[in-house]
# Entry
Amino acid sequence: MTDKKLIFFDIDGTLYNSDKKVPAKAQEAILKLKDEGHIVAIATGRGPFMFKELRESLGIETYISYNGQYIVYEGEVIYQNAISEETLDDLTKRAYKNDHPVAYCDENDLRVSTREHNHVKEGIGSLKLNFQVNEDRSYYQNNDIYQALLFCEEGEEDPYIKAFDDVYFLRWHEFATDVIPKGGSKAKGIEMLIEKMGIDLAQVYAFGDGPNDVEMLSLVKNSVAMGNGVDEVKRVSRYQTGHVDDNGLVEGLEMTGLI
# Structure
């Protein structure tokens, strides 16, 4: 058997194609990696409940979710970094005045302040979730929120960026921006996991495509940018593969010698 590798995959645009599905060849390749003794993990901006079926279908028990704010190793939570309730209260009040809906995400659910807003429909709709998103403006008061979503057009988040110093804003959609507590990232999540697992960074591989993958791909020497990825991801990655819709993930596994 080859030396054990630890391989991280982003979900949207990496594992998932444009139809939010894992291509058959990619799934076959990932299961082969596991059969050969490698450790397959996920690093995503999504919350755990958003990719439960994916984890089950691929047999994955180790993952970095919410861009590093909620980390699980072999089914055990090893790191949590929630946004302060004070910050969420202030964000909610400011957003309400500006007609900017907010979503609150914990490990089990996602609730929005205003479900019927067009920006919410467009942003949440792009995730193609298999459940109905409920409305609850006070959800953050009773739950640990690891990531919020601010629904606004590009540039409208600027006043919020200036107002808060304990969170950062990362746009992922025309009408939606992640609000993430400072202190965690996919890269820091990888550092925590490799320390816990006793794996050398040289044995770690990472695949990604979006702005929230830049730190991760900059950290990992064996980094792979998807052909559909943003330019910054391609600049920091060792390898560049084809588009996810053209079996780019499998191509990347072949380029790195993993399969």
Q: What stands out?
A: The mean pLDDT is 96. The first helix runs from residue 24 to 35.
